[in-house]
Amino acid sequence: MSVKFSVIIPTYNRADLLSFTLDTVLRQTLPAVEVIVVDDGSTDDTGRIAEEYGNAIRYLQIANGGTPVARNAGARISTSPWLAFCDSDDLWRPDHLARLSQVIEATPELSFAFANFRHIVDDRWQETPKFDLAPGDYWRQLGVAKRQGDAVIHQPIYPSLLRFQPVFPSCIAISRAHFDRMGGFDPRFARELSEDLEFTLRCNREGLPVGVVLDPTVGIRKHAGNISGNAIDCTLGEIRILRFCRDHHRPPPAWARLINDQIALRSTGAIHCAFAAGRPDLVRQLAANIPIARRSWKIWVKLALASLRRPAAGAVSGSRPPANA
Protein backbone atom coordinates (compact mmCIF):
# COMPACT_ATOMS: atom_id res chain seq x y z
CA MET A 1 0.00 0.00 0.00
CA SER A 2 1.49 3.34 -1.08
CA VAL A 3 2.33 6.09 1.36
CA LYS A 4 -0.15 8.96 1.49
CA PHE A 5 1.48 12.37 1.10
CA SER A 6 0.38 15.94 1.64
CA VAL A 7 2.63 18.19 -0.46
CA ILE A 8 3.31 21.67 0.91
CA ILE A 9 4.57 24.44 -1.38
CA PRO A 10 5.50 27.75 0.29
CA THR A 11 5.69 30.64 -2.15
CA TYR A 12 6.42 34.34 -2.22
CA ASN A 13 6.30 36.40 -5.42
CA ARG A 14 7.10 33.45 -7.67
CA ALA A 15 4.18 33.84 -10.10
CA ASP A 16 6.60 33.38 -13.02
CA LEU A 17 7.81 29.98 -11.75
CA LEU A 18 5.00 28.57 -9.62
CA SER A 19 3.10 26.93 -12.49
CA PHE A 20 6.20 24.95 -13.55
CA THR A 21 6.55 23.61 -10.01
CA LEU A 22 2.85 22.79 -9.68
CA ASP A 23 2.78 20.96 -13.00
CA THR A 24 5.56 18.60 -11.89
CA VAL A 25 3.97 18.04 -8.48
CA LEU A 26 0.54 17.31 -9.97
CA ARG A 27 1.92 14.89 -12.57
CA GLN A 28 3.40 12.42 -10.12
CA THR A 29 2.98 8.73 -10.89
CA LEU A 30 1.96 8.44 -7.24
CA PRO A 31 -0.44 11.37 -6.81
CA ALA A 32 -0.43 13.26 -3.53
CA VAL A 33 -3.56 13.21 -1.42
CA GLU A 34 -3.45 17.02 -1.50
CA VAL A 35 -1.20 19.81 -2.75
CA ILE A 36 -1.19 22.83 -0.45
CA VAL A 37 0.15 26.13 -1.79
CA VAL A 38 0.87 28.58 1.03
CA ASP A 39 1.10 32.15 -0.29
CA ASP A 40 3.36 33.99 2.14
CA GLY A 41 2.01 37.48 1.48
CA SER A 42 2.85 37.69 -2.24
CA THR A 43 2.31 41.00 -4.02
CA ASP A 44 2.49 39.66 -7.58
CA ASP A 45 0.09 37.44 -9.57
CA THR A 46 0.60 34.37 -7.38
CA GLY A 47 -3.07 34.27 -6.39
CA ARG A 48 -4.21 34.35 -10.01
CA ILE A 49 -1.82 31.54 -10.97
CA ALA A 50 -3.08 29.41 -8.08
CA GLU A 51 -6.69 30.12 -9.05
CA GLU A 52 -6.09 28.61 -12.48
CA TYR A 53 -5.53 25.21 -10.86
CA GLY A 54 -8.95 25.19 -9.23
CA ASN A 55 -9.66 22.19 -7.01
CA ALA A 56 -6.37 20.51 -7.95
CA ILE A 57 -4.70 22.42 -5.13
CA ARG A 58 -5.54 23.95 -1.75
CA TYR A 59 -4.56 27.60 -1.64
CA LEU A 60 -3.82 29.31 1.67
CA GLN A 61 -2.93 32.99 2.00
CA ILE A 62 -1.09 34.17 5.11
CA ALA A 63 0.63 37.37 6.22
CA ASN A 64 4.28 37.49 5.24
CA GLY A 65 6.34 35.66 7.84
CA GLY A 66 9.02 33.78 5.92
CA THR A 67 9.39 30.33 4.44
CA PRO A 68 9.46 28.40 7.77
CA VAL A 69 6.20 30.05 8.83
CA ALA A 70 4.59 29.18 5.50
CA ARG A 71 5.69 25.55 5.68
CA ASN A 72 4.32 25.23 9.20
CA ALA A 73 1.01 26.80 8.15
CA GLY A 74 0.66 24.22 5.37
CA ALA A 75 1.50 21.39 7.75
CA ARG A 76 -1.19 22.51 10.19
CA ILE A 77 -3.99 22.14 7.63
CA SER A 78 -2.62 18.97 6.02
CA THR A 79 -4.49 15.68 6.39
CA SER A 80 -2.00 12.96 5.41
CA PRO A 81 0.33 10.89 7.61
CA TRP A 82 3.35 12.01 5.55
CA LEU A 83 4.45 15.49 4.49
CA ALA A 84 6.55 16.29 1.43
CA PHE A 85 7.82 19.79 0.73
CA CYS A 86 8.67 21.55 -2.52
CA ASP A 87 9.84 25.14 -2.87
CA SER A 88 7.92 27.08 -5.49
CA ASP A 89 10.82 27.34 -7.94
CA ASP A 90 11.94 23.70 -7.82
CA LEU A 91 10.87 20.74 -9.97
CA TRP A 92 10.14 17.07 -9.36
CA ARG A 93 10.69 14.13 -11.65
CA PRO A 94 7.41 12.21 -12.19
CA ASP A 95 8.47 9.36 -9.89
CA HIS A 96 9.66 11.48 -6.95
CA LEU A 97 6.83 10.62 -4.55
CA ALA A 98 6.72 7.02 -5.76
CA ARG A 99 10.41 6.56 -4.99
CA LEU A 100 10.03 8.11 -1.54
CA SER A 101 7.03 5.86 -0.92
CA GLN A 102 9.05 2.83 -1.97
CA VAL A 103 11.84 3.40 0.53
CA ILE A 104 9.38 4.30 3.31
CA GLU A 105 7.24 1.20 2.72
CA ALA A 106 10.30 -1.03 2.82
CA THR A 107 11.25 0.19 6.32
CA PRO A 108 8.13 0.99 8.37
CA GLU A 109 10.13 2.47 11.27
CA LEU A 110 11.31 5.36 9.07
CA SER A 111 10.11 8.85 9.91
CA PHE A 112 12.39 10.85 7.62
CA ALA A 113 13.55 10.36 4.04
CA PHE A 114 15.20 12.44 1.33
CA ALA A 115 16.12 12.18 -2.33
CA ASN A 116 19.10 13.14 -4.44
CA PHE A 117 18.84 16.15 -6.75
CA ARG A 118 20.46 18.09 -9.57
CA HIS A 119 20.79 21.85 -9.85
CA ILE A 120 18.93 23.58 -12.65
CA VAL A 121 20.77 26.51 -14.23
CA ASP A 122 19.21 28.44 -17.13
CA ASP A 123 16.51 25.77 -17.33
CA ARG A 124 19.09 23.03 -17.85
CA TRP A 125 19.46 20.14 -15.42
CA GLN A 126 23.12 19.88 -14.48
CA GLU A 127 24.85 16.58 -15.10
CA THR A 128 26.39 15.99 -11.65
CA PRO A 129 23.92 15.04 -8.90
CA LYS A 130 24.37 16.59 -5.48
CA PHE A 131 25.30 13.30 -3.82
CA ASP A 132 28.30 12.94 -6.14
CA LEU A 133 29.78 16.13 -4.67
CA ALA A 134 30.13 14.59 -1.21
CA PRO A 135 33.60 13.84 0.22
CA GLY A 136 34.97 10.54 -1.03
CA ASP A 137 34.25 8.53 2.11
CA TYR A 138 30.93 10.19 2.94
CA TRP A 139 28.44 7.55 1.84
CA ARG A 140 30.65 4.62 2.81
CA GLN A 141 30.85 5.93 6.38
CA LEU A 142 27.05 6.10 6.44
CA GLY A 143 26.87 2.46 5.38
CA VAL A 144 25.66 3.14 1.83
CA ALA A 145 27.40 0.62 -0.38
CA LYS A 146 25.99 1.64 -3.77
CA ARG A 147 25.14 4.94 -5.38
CA GLN A 148 21.88 4.08 -7.16
CA GLY A 149 18.47 2.90 -6.08
CA ASP A 150 17.36 3.28 -2.47
CA ALA A 151 19.13 2.97 0.87
CA VAL A 152 18.35 3.06 4.56
CA ILE A 153 20.89 4.61 6.91
CA HIS A 154 20.78 3.01 10.36
CA GLN A 155 23.33 5.22 12.11
CA PRO A 156 23.09 8.87 13.20
CA ILE A 157 23.51 11.20 10.23
CA TYR A 158 23.77 14.38 12.33
CA PRO A 159 27.60 14.48 12.37
CA SER A 160 27.75 13.68 8.66
CA LEU A 161 25.35 16.53 7.88
CA LEU A 162 27.81 18.89 9.54
CA ARG A 163 30.51 17.88 7.03
CA PHE A 164 28.31 17.92 3.93
CA GLN A 165 24.63 18.83 3.66
CA PRO A 166 22.84 16.89 0.87
CA VAL A 167 19.33 17.40 2.32
CA PHE A 168 17.21 20.19 0.82
CA PRO A 169 13.56 20.95 1.69
CA SER A 170 12.27 20.13 -1.80
CA CYS A 171 13.72 16.63 -1.45
CA ILE A 172 12.42 15.55 1.97
CA ALA A 173 9.49 13.56 3.29
CA ILE A 174 8.74 13.43 6.99
CA SER A 175 6.02 11.66 8.92
CA ARG A 176 3.44 14.00 10.35
CA ALA A 177 4.05 12.47 13.79
CA HIS A 178 7.79 13.22 13.64
CA PHE A 179 7.17 16.72 12.27
CA ASP A 180 4.85 17.49 15.17
CA ARG A 181 7.24 15.91 17.68
CA MET A 182 10.08 18.11 16.39
CA GLY A 183 7.90 21.24 16.48
CA GLY A 184 8.11 21.99 12.76
CA PHE A 185 10.39 24.62 11.22
CA ASP A 186 11.70 27.27 13.59
CA PRO A 187 10.29 30.71 12.63
CA ARG A 188 13.24 32.39 14.37
CA PHE A 189 15.30 31.55 11.29
CA ALA A 190 12.87 32.97 8.75
CA ARG A 191 15.39 35.67 7.79
CA GLU A 192 18.34 33.30 7.41
CA LEU A 193 19.38 32.11 3.98
CA SER A 194 20.06 28.62 5.37
CA GLU A 195 16.91 28.39 7.51
CA ASP A 196 16.29 24.71 6.72
CA LEU A 197 19.67 23.57 8.10
CA GLU A 198 18.52 23.79 11.72
CA PHE A 199 15.35 21.82 10.98
CA THR A 200 17.25 19.07 9.16
CA LEU A 201 19.76 18.69 11.99
CA ARG A 202 17.08 18.76 14.68
CA CYS A 203 15.00 16.10 12.92
CA ASN A 204 18.01 13.78 12.77
CA ARG A 205 19.65 14.31 16.14
CA GLU A 206 18.02 11.20 17.62
CA GLY A 207 19.79 8.81 15.25
CA LEU A 208 16.63 7.23 13.83
CA PRO A 209 16.80 5.28 10.54
CA VAL A 210 16.70 7.55 7.49
CA GLY A 211 15.54 6.60 4.00
CA VAL A 212 17.48 7.80 0.98
CA VAL A 213 16.55 7.82 -2.71
CA LEU A 214 20.00 7.75 -4.28
CA ASP A 215 18.84 8.62 -7.79
CA PRO A 216 18.19 12.34 -8.42
CA THR A 217 14.41 12.92 -8.56
CA VAL A 218 14.42 16.67 -7.83
CA GLY A 219 15.68 19.76 -9.63
CA ILE A 220 16.81 22.69 -7.46
CA ARG A 221 16.77 25.93 -9.43
CA LYS A 222 19.61 28.43 -9.35
CA HIS A 223 18.47 31.79 -10.70
CA ALA A 224 18.65 35.55 -10.14
CA GLY A 225 15.68 35.53 -7.79
CA ASN A 226 17.11 32.80 -5.59
CA ILE A 227 18.51 34.54 -2.51
CA SER A 228 20.68 31.58 -1.55
CA GLY A 229 23.05 32.80 -4.25
CA ASN A 230 24.57 35.33 -1.81
CA ALA A 231 27.59 33.36 -0.63
CA ILE A 232 28.64 35.59 2.27
CA ASP A 233 25.19 35.99 3.79
CA CYS A 234 24.45 32.30 3.26
CA THR A 235 27.59 31.37 5.19
CA LEU A 236 26.82 33.88 7.95
CA GLY A 237 23.39 32.29 8.29
CA GLU A 238 24.95 28.84 8.56
CA ILE A 239 27.31 30.06 11.28
CA ARG A 240 24.47 31.57 13.32
CA ILE A 241 22.45 28.38 12.95
CA LEU A 242 25.37 26.13 13.89
CA ARG A 243 25.90 28.17 17.05
CA PHE A 244 22.24 27.73 17.89
CA CYS A 245 22.44 23.98 17.27
CA ARG A 246 25.51 23.68 19.50
CA ASP A 247 23.77 25.57 22.30
CA HIS A 248 20.24 24.14 22.02
CA HIS A 249 20.34 20.68 20.43
CA ARG A 250 22.21 19.16 23.36
CA PRO A 251 24.76 17.43 21.12
CA PRO A 252 27.20 15.01 22.73
CA PRO A 253 30.71 16.47 23.20
CA ALA A 254 32.07 14.88 20.01
CA TRP A 255 29.31 16.45 17.93
CA ALA A 256 29.75 19.81 19.66
CA ARG A 257 33.42 19.74 18.68
CA LEU A 258 32.42 19.01 15.09
CA ILE A 259 30.07 21.98 15.16
CA ASN A 260 32.87 24.24 16.42
CA ASP A 261 35.15 22.90 13.69
CA GLN A 262 32.52 23.70 11.07
CA ILE A 263 32.01 27.21 12.43
CA ALA A 264 35.76 27.78 12.12
CA LEU A 265 35.87 26.25 8.64
CA ARG A 266 32.95 28.33 7.35
CA SER A 267 34.40 31.45 8.96
CA THR A 268 37.69 30.86 7.18
CA GLY A 269 35.99 30.71 3.80
CA ALA A 270 33.81 33.72 4.57
CA ILE A 271 36.83 35.82 5.58
CA HIS A 272 38.28 35.57 2.08
CA CYS A 273 34.93 36.59 0.55
CA ALA A 274 34.46 39.43 3.05
CA PHE A 275 37.97 40.75 2.42
CA ALA A 276 37.43 40.70 -1.34
CA ALA A 277 34.10 42.50 -0.84
CA GLY A 278 35.77 45.28 1.16
CA ARG A 279 34.15 44.45 4.50
CA PRO A 280 37.00 44.74 7.07
CA ASP A 281 34.62 44.78 10.02
CA LEU A 282 33.25 41.40 8.97
CA VAL A 283 36.78 40.03 8.53
CA ARG A 284 37.54 40.91 12.14
CA GLN A 285 34.27 39.45 13.39
CA LEU A 286 34.75 36.16 11.56
CA ALA A 287 38.35 35.80 12.72
CA ALA A 288 37.07 35.55 16.28
CA ASN A 289 35.48 32.20 15.32
CA ILE A 290 38.82 30.70 14.29
CA PRO A 291 41.21 29.39 16.97
CA ILE A 292 44.60 31.07 16.72
CA ALA A 293 46.30 27.74 15.98
CA ARG A 294 44.08 27.24 12.93
CA ARG A 295 44.67 30.66 11.34
CA SER A 296 46.72 30.46 8.16
CA TRP A 297 49.18 33.18 7.22
CA LYS A 298 46.64 34.42 4.67
CA ILE A 299 44.10 34.89 7.45
CA TRP A 300 46.64 36.78 9.56
CA VAL A 301 47.53 39.07 6.65
CA LYS A 302 43.90 39.85 5.86
CA LEU A 303 43.10 40.36 9.52
CA ALA A 304 46.03 42.77 9.87
CA LEU A 305 44.98 44.72 6.78
CA ALA A 306 41.36 44.75 7.95
CA SER A 307 42.47 46.16 11.31
CA LEU A 308 44.00 49.17 9.52
CA ARG A 309 40.68 50.06 7.92
CA ARG A 310 37.80 51.75 9.66
CA PRO A 311 34.68 49.56 9.99
CA ALA A 312 31.80 50.25 7.66
CA ALA A 313 28.72 51.49 9.47
CA GLY A 314 26.03 48.91 10.04
CA ALA A 315 28.02 45.96 8.73
CA VAL A 316 28.86 44.16 11.95
CA SER A 317 27.14 40.84 11.21
CA GLY A 318 26.51 41.08 7.51
CA SER A 319 23.27 42.01 5.84
CA ARG A 320 20.26 39.78 6.31
CA PRO A 321 17.85 38.80 3.57
CA PRO A 322 14.12 39.45 3.41
CA ALA A 323 11.87 36.93 5.14
CA ASN A 324 11.42 34.70 2.11
CA ALA A 325 13.51 32.25 0.12
Question: What does this molecule look like?
Answer:
This protein is 39% helix and 18% strand. It is built from twelve helices and ten strands. Strands 1, 2, 3, 4, 5, 6, 7, 8, 9 and 10 form a ten-stranded mixed beta sheet that branches.
Number of helical elements: 12
What is the CA–CA distance across the termini? 35 Å
User: How many structural domains are formed by the residues?
Assistant: 2
The CATH architecture of the largest domain can be given as Alpha-Beta Complex
Tell me the number of strands.
Answer: 10
Helix content: 25-40%
Q: Give me the strand/helix succession.
A: EHEHEHEEHEEHEHEHHEHHHH
Task: Kindly summarize this structure in a few lines.
Strands 1, 2, 3, 4, 5, 6, 7, 8, 9 and 10 form a 10-stranded mixed β-sheet that branches.
Layout of SSEs?
Layout: E1 5-11, H1 15-26, E2 34-40, H2 46-51, E3 58-62, H3 67-77, E4 82-85, E5 91-92, H4 96-106, E6 112-121, E7 124-125, H5 138-141, E8 150-153, H6 158-163, E9 172-175, H7 176-182, H8 196-203, E10 210-222, H9 231-248, H10 253-276, H11 280-287, H12 297-307
Parallel strand pairs: 1-2, 1-4, 2-3, 6-10
Antiparallel strand pairs: 4-9, 5-10, 6-7, 6-9, 8-10
Structure keywords:
alpha/beta; Spore Coat Polysaccharide Biosynthesis Protein SpsA, Chain A; ten-stranded mixed beta sheet; 12 helices; 39% helix; globular
